[in-house]
Automatic annotation (TrEMBL):
Subcellular location: Cytoplasm; Nucleus
UniProt keyword list: Aminoacyl-tRNA synthetase, ATP-binding, Cytoplasm, Ligase, Nucleotide-binding, Nucleus, Protein biosynthesis
Disordered: region residues: 277-300, 365-436
Catalytic reaction equation(s): tRNA(Tyr) + L-tyrosine + ATP = L-tyrosyl-tRNA(Tyr) + AMP + diphosphate + H(+)
Primary residence: cytoplasm
Name of this protein: Tyrosine--tRNA ligase
GO molecular function list: ATP binding; tyrosine-tRNA ligase activity
Organism this protein belongs to: Cerrena zonata
Segments of skewed composition (Polar residues): 410-423
NCBIfam families linked to this entry: tyrS
EC number(s) recorded for this UniProt protein: 6.1.1.1
Record-stated family: Belongs to the class-I aminoacyl-tRNA synthetase family.
């Protein structure tokens, strides 16, 4: 039992950058219980391929028998400095769910084992809001601002909503009933905030697992708000190749290199996942890969040596293809200038196009997803439709009304034409007799 618990724990934490409270997870596994974890995302901008880092890692959790919840944090999306206006949040939440399901299917991760929850389903309850008020009574402005510094959009005059954000994320751990929260290392301050304040409300302290962040294509953080730093899941192949071609990838520079980092953070882990699946090494997840979409072969060329996790095609005249068994190997070759940026970029572009093909196919085959996408991310340059002029409908005037109507008589005493003639005749006759 102890050996099995150790194997599961190593699966849970492998390839992570940081772990807080790992002993809690070890205790749960040693007692033979099932750990419960959650990963959350706020549906704001269009998701980019950096999401593969976290989503691929969820396969390890399922292999270790973890019960995984996916939180679609719609309330958080609105609170984060209006990144997603309230009227768009519902559409973007639906879009994110479509996308995440397609990505999980392309990775061979069984969605039947995942629980999807919308934050508003419990964050608007009386109990949750009372806890928000309790937190507000003990959290300082300094601590709230510091906790959200790397996650909440920072502006010169911060809104109160951004200060509420970290508290809500901390409370999510309690209301989702999890043992650990999983997220990027950029959320570390929110995680330590939760560890500090949840016990002050009488709630248990949870463990926190953090993956590495993928640098953007021009260096720095890959961000949904910077189109030049990222590749969207729905970018066509031509756009992908163009973005990779223009990405910063200085020869010999292995640091702050978005292209090389993507290989190490995404492509190699997915290759390892597929190679292990081919060998039947899926642990507690016996459903992994059964309903997978798209090409499930690793990013390895035919004839590569055993143990290769990533290959770079190169013509024989330039020394032949290169094959790598680890991240360190590809780092070393790039630093030594044995691997040229042009060859690396070509291999990465090909891999990304292949990786996104089943996701984009799912999008094209779903009319509901396509209509949701238009509502969630309307074209900012689209001209508003001109309002159609209302057609004039002729309504005849009531009797006696309108420009051609004859003047109405005031009352019944007014003489008619016939009466006037009858009265005037004797008068004219009398005048004639008096003149004769």
């Amino acid at each position: 039992m102890a050996a099995e618990a150790d194997v599961k724990y190593e699966l849970i934490i492998r390839d992570l950058q940081d772990v807080l409270g790992g002993e809690l997870i070890k205790t749960i596994l040693a007692e033979g219980r099932t750990p419960k974890g959650y990963w959350g995302t706020a549906p704001t901008g269009r998701p980019h391929i950096g999401y593969f880092v976290a989503l691929t890692k969820i396969a390890d959790f399922l292999r270790a028998g973890v019960e995984v919840t996916i939180l679609l944090a719609d309330v958080h999306a609105f609170l984060d400095n209006l990144k997603a206006p309230l009227e768009l949040v519902a559409h973007r939440t639906k879009y994110y769910q479509f996308l995440l399901l397609a990505v999980f299917q392309s990775l061979g991760i069984p969605t039947s084992k995942l629980k999807f929850v919308e934050g508003s389903s419990y964050q608007l309850t009386r109990e949750y809001n009372l806890d928000c008020y309790k937190l507000a009574s003990i959290v300082t402005e300094h601590d709230a601002k510091k906790a959200g510094a790397e996650v909440v959009k920072q502006v010169e005059s911060p809104l109160l909503s951004g200060l509420l954000y970290p508290g809500l994320q901390a409370l999510d751990e309690q209301y989702l009933g999890c043992d650990f929260q999983f997220g990027g290392v950029d959320q570390r301050k929110i995680f330590t905030f939760a560890e500090l304040y949840l016990p002050r409300l009488g709630y248990a302290k949870r463990a926190h697992l953090m993956n590495k962040m993928v640098p953007g294509l021009g260096g720095g953080k890959m961000s949904s708000s910077d189109p030049n730093s990222k590749i969207d899941f729905l970018d066509p192949p031509a756009t992908i190749r163009k973005k990779i071609k223009s990405a910063f990838c200085e020869e010999g520079n292995k640091d702050d290199n978005g292209v090389l980092s993507f290989v190490k953070a995404v492509l190699i882990p997915i290759s390892q996942l597929r190679i292990e699946r081919q060998k039947g090494q899926t642990g507690a997840d016996d459903e992994e890969g059964k309903d997978a979409s798209g090409d499930q072969t690793p990013f390895v060329l035919e004839g590569a040596p055993e143990g290769t996790v990533f290959s770079v095609f190169r013509k024989e005249e330039f020394g032949g293809s290169l094959h790598y068994k680890s991240r360190d190997d590809i780092d070393d070759d790039f630093a030594a200038k044995k691997l040229h940026p042009k060859d690396l970029k070509a291999a990465v572009a090909d891999a990304i196009v292949r990786l996104l093909e089943p996701i984009q196919k799912a999008f094209e085959e779903s009319e509901e997803w396509k209509s949701t996408e238009k509502l969630a991310y309307p074209d900012p340059n689209a001209k508003p439709e001109k309002k159609k002029k209302k057609e004039k409908v002729y309504h005849p005037p009531p009797p006696g009304k309108g420009k051609n109507a004859k003047p109405a008589q005031s009352d019944e005493s007014a003489p008619s034409k016939e009466t006037t003639t009858e009265v005037q005749a004797p008068v004219e006759g009398a005048k004639a007799e008096s003149q004769s």
